[in-house]
Amino acid sequence: MDIVDVTEKKLSVDTITELVSDDTCGAVSLFIGTTRNNFDNKEVLRLEYEAYEPMAKKKMLEVCASIRQQWQVHKIAMIHRIGVVPVKEASIIIAISSAHRKESLDAVQYAINTVKAVVPVWKKEIYADDSSSWKQNKECAWSEDCPATASGPAGSSQGTADD
User: What is the DSSP string of 13-81?
Assistant: First the structure.
């Protein structure tokens, strides 16, 4: 079972973990990307995310399919938050269950790296000095060819909380 979503709601580790938990599995591995309070010697107040939701969900399902081709996993959940994400709160949670830990650990690392590279989600950092910056994600598959990488979601690059 693959569960993907893009939401403005605050993410719950417990709720998302429960989505993938199963009596047949001995492991649930998680990645939680959170907003940190600093970047490049600037104080970050919050992140603001935008997404092309239909494509984001489609790409996350493709990542799930790729995981299933490589590892024996049971359930996968990928939930990305959009809108305002305050410091210390999660912008993405990926949870993967498997019979044994190696599969889910390897799969969750692959999942976050791949999501950052292919899912159309854009991140704007808001700083304490009243400035802001759309952040380019170095893993973004289209970052070199993007026509307006610094201008915002219309043509900008993608990012997630752990950049």
Answer: HHHHHHHH--TT-SEEEEEEEE--SEETTEEEEEEEEEE-HHHHHHHHHHHHHHHHHHS--S-EEEEEE
| Binding-site sequence positions | 100-101, 116, 123-125
| CA–CA distances in Å: residue 119 to residues 57, 98, 112, 129, 140 | 8, 24, 10, 30, 8
User: How far apart (Å, rounded) are the C-alpha atoms in residues 96 and 105?
Assistant: 8
Q: How far apart are the C-alpha atoms of 138 and 92, rounded to whole Å?
A: 17
CA atoms within 13 A on the CB side of 28: 19
Residue recorded with tokens 């009243």: 130
Contacts of 31 (CB under 8 A, 6+ apart): 92, 93, 94, 108, 109, 111, 112
Give 40-84 pLDDT, tens digit per residue.
999 999 999 999 999 999 999 999 999 999 999 999 999 999 999
- What predicted TM-score, i.e. pTM, was given to this entire model? 0.85
- Smallest CA-to-CA distance from 11 within 124, 125, 92, 78 is with 92
Task: Please state whether beta strands 2-7 and 76-81 pair in parallel, antiparallel, or not at all (unpaired).
Answer: parallel
Where is the binding site for substrate, in residues? 100-101, 116, 123-125
